[in-house]
Amino acid sequence: GSTHCASQTTADYQEHDSLPKEIVHLLHSSLYNHDAEYTKSLKKCFQILVRDPYLMKARPFDLSDEQNRELTMRQIRRVFHIRNKLLKNESPQMQQAFLNVLNMYDRSLHMRLYVHFILFKETLWSQGGDTFGKSFADKIERGEVLGCFSMTELGHSSYLRGIETVATFDKEHDEFVIETTKLTGTKWWIGIAGQVATHTVALAQLRDHNGMDHGLYWFLVPMRDPNTGELLPGVTAGHLGAKAGRSGLDNGWIQFSQCRVPRSNLLQRFVRMERDGTIVKTNSNPSLSYMTLVGERIVALRAAFNMLSQAATISVRYGVLRKQGPKDEKIMDYQSHYFNLMPVVCGSYALQYMHNRVLTAWQEAQQRFISQRQSTAELAEEIQYFHALSAGSKTFLCWWVADALEACRRSGGGHFYSAYNNIASIIADYAVITTGGGDNFVLGQQCARYLLNQYKRAFSGKSVHSSLSHLKDMKMLSDKKLSINRASDISLEKVLESFQWLSLYLLTDSAKILTMQGKNAAEYWNDHIMEMVQVGEPYVYFQVLEHLRDFSEDPKNEPIRSLMREMGVCFGLSLMEKLLDRFLVGGYMRVEEVAIIRKARTELCKELRRVCIPLVDSFGYPDEVLKSPMASYDTRKAYENYFDLVKGNSYVAPYWEKEVRSLLMHQSRL
User: Fold this and answer.
1) pTM, whole model, 2 decimals?
2) CA 478 to CA 456: how far, in whole Å?
């Protein structure tokens, strides 16, 4: 195996400005909040992974969908065995590191585990409290039940108010009867529901015995007999067949037909159905029903980091390996290469830093709620902020990652069109991030509504969330200009201030548009959706760069602080270039300053290119995780290893006689 330590450097990759190994160690540690126990656990878990024949998939890119699903289920069985035996008494860091390593290695495997441990288990907790007791929780941990998360439907995914699954209370039998009332109410794109889930948490319209609706709530519904795999009475389900990526995951559909569950299967943290049919609600804020989705969108940032940093590692290593030109130049030395790839590397770091800090804040908020140090009303207000930030981040950062992945693919020419170098697979699997968890245009609007509400509060002299403190002095900020004369005038603070200005400018502009409405408010909003969606973009970019800036001030980062800030500027300038039209229209910068920004970015990319190899080595991926022979840690056999994957494909085509010979022998009639 090649479970190298993140600080190792081989002669093949040593370049004139390679970073000292202690700096590479520190960069790697910074990606995990300098948690020494966690980074040590990560190394051990990589070793467990690459040495375990049941976890590793041989020639993964040559598997059929059915083979992939079966092998992924074999991995799942092995994962539970390892968790319940080998890691049973290990630290929480070790447990988490193991799941993260699996996420890095196989995204179908990870998604199955994510659906079970996060979407299913966390919904049971966040919506049900201790409704089902410790014994059922233990079964989830041991894999004695396999759970899925049934929210989206065939006819309406992000539009939850349109959900057509209905759970009606049968007072006589003390049960709920769950019904898929229309074809469009079929639960759709439900991970692990297609073939293996034994239980699901299903979101449905709660209806009392008098036929009155009481809103959307969650129900625990058994699906399959654990012994035979047969569907239980009242449940029909199947898998959705071929899809763009993650073929080892059995996404499925579910229909409920007079499906009966006990009254106690209603998840009862926020609502309770009494035996006589009385509804008791402990929460009137519908946003609390969607707490799981906030966590899901925050975790999407980590998934995006894992995929992007792998693609960046593969692209940069290949860029240094591949030589082309009159002087046998490394293609990474061409401006077209480092200009496009270095912001990807820098953005990967920024993405992970933001994920770490936002996830920690979200977990702390949840703990305050559990310990009842925070009221339901206070939690609901905090959820609004986290919802807006996670919705905006998923929209704008995950769209940026999609573009960055494509830049990585293009950097490898024909070799990266091959499945065997993994970039194509990463891109196909990544499509889930920009597709699932809510439509990005819808989420962008939700972020905008929150920001506009905060803007109105600030305009009225009321308090706003701390992340929008720049709204407290609108006049001073709106009067600011970029005011640069040379590339050296640009700093991380200047970039941050630029995004603050643009955030205020777009909020002010949008607020003016909305006050001019002369017709139905919803219709007017629809006529200006594209302006509204873009309101959140500079806010999100400011947030990700501010998290990087603030984290760089941690004393542990002192030796890498200047490098972190350079990466922040490089990433920030590439984001500013995306929004130049808005800066220019708003009068924030002069046309001449656009050229200065481009020059500054180019020079910084060239400077950072000199340390590109240690920067990607710090991500710490073993070759087995990267799955790309052209990005092997030891490049001496890169081309040989690549050719080994295809040299066995030399044989007479099985359709020669039927199709080719018929053509050549002029027997071409079908």
Assistant:
1) 0.92
2) 16
